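Re: duplicated header lines in exported structure tokens

Our pipeline writes sequence and tokens for each protein into one text file. With two proteins the header for the second block appears twice in some exports. Here is an export where it did not happen, for reference. First protein block:
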Amino acid sequence: MQEKALKQKKIAILGGGESGVGTAILAEKEGFKIFLSDKGKIKDKYKEVLENLEIEWEELQHSEEKIFDADVVMKSPGIPENVPLVLKLKEKNIPVISEIEFASEFTSAEIIGITGSNGKTTTTKFAHHILKSGNISAGMAGNVGDSFAKQVAENDYDWYVLELSSFQLDGIVNFRPEIAVLTNITPDHLDRYDNKLENYIAAKFRITMNQTEDDYFIYDADDENIRTWLKKNPVKAQKLPFSLERKFDNGAYLENNQIIIKINNTEFNMPTTDLSLQGKHNTKNAMAAATVAQLLRIRKQTIRESMENFQGVEHRLEKVLKINNVLYINDSKATNINATFYALESMESATVWIVGGVDKGNVYSDLLPLVNEKVKAIICLGVDNAKIIDAFGNCVDVMVETQSMDEAVKIAYKIAEKNETVLLSPACASFDLFENYEDRGRQFKEAVRNL
């Protein structure tokens, strides 16, 4: 699917959210005939963009004959691969691609692609922060900020740092990042992968499938799922591992509380105590981002300063307020067990833990040792809390069920004592009581400020 071949073609876009409308903006610029269709309602801000560009669109339905008339279909990442419409498109041999694939055809910028079950947003923002500090012309897109397609239409960057979900990677054909980062793989979104972990792992590794010997693949060498996959599946790109447990001639590791990064006989080092974000998982995120920066030959001093002043990500272990010497932490972005594991592991005082939401097949037993050690009370915040009560009922003396964020925070305020922590780290998706994890996090912060 080369650029010239795509010109003057018809594109159907499924989904009228950020990636769908971004694709429409770029397709319009590149001379496509466009039809955008959303089975749900399209937000007013997106309708306005479509109207201004005179793009044909519909909502609350899919007009199949118009969609089947397309030469290529861009499917938004939220739409599963196995819905009837997508299966019919594949039967008709109409290519179904992701916005990432489409946009990459129209930019000559070099790409840093970052994926993983956890840490990808922090690592993406970290890497972008270091690149900007090093005066490199770089955009940031994918799962963060404006869509990749919209940025390709409106900007001319030399580099893009893209946060990529497995759903976005499912729809790539030729997409090839010069630098690929895989932060870790733990069970997540298995409902979209026939409840098979190996299918989810394979989706994550699509990030490197088109890489060549000139490209780089940066990965967590402590992650068993990644190590096992790499033993069975060769990767063409040059491998740069990072680890808290072992050393490398080429890669990043820890020695005497120093991060050491060695690449082709150059060495970078920095004490972990100087990192703005603490915790083992953040040390790994920093290693991955600094390895990217080393490949781009950014000055060592610039990398160090960037890692000292990086502010982190909203809704990811975000310190909200201290009230009566109790610290309130917003970790609403923790939508799976592994993310919550990191959060509980980094707690340094007795913790009142707010947990719950839509369970994506969670196995809570991994958290038992940490809950026994760190958690003094559990506040369930979900429509169905049975699994959480079942898993942790014997671990804590106080367990409360709530149906609203206000109520959860007020109860936490009553339970938490001086020098303790209240942690919102749900380990679940948010769609039962909230619009999304951002809405959940903002409601938490508002409720804390209203105490």
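Second protein block, exported in the same file:
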Amino acid sequence: MSETWTFVCTTAELLPGEMKVAFDEVTGTPIAVFNLDGMFYALEDQCTHEDFELSAGHFDAASGQVECVLHGAKFDVREGTALCAPAYEPVAKFPVKVEDGAVFTRDDR
């Protein structure tokens, strides 16, 4: 578990409907950070169906879902919940904090 917060970007660099990937400074875990209507959410950047990065897929800000480009599995960016086959397991969700216009996340497992 990492106690160290990893800088992702400034809030101006991650507008509503956008996502960015950061790598946890301690664990090296790839983390996708989503701006959903001004709220920030972070998920492990790895589909639970097959080892493939979610950030390569489509983030649908209207529904709050990210779709894995490999086989079409969809996940709720707020909770990491798997929404359809072929994925059945949720994606790991990580904390996000915003301080002084900067977005941070960390692998808290």
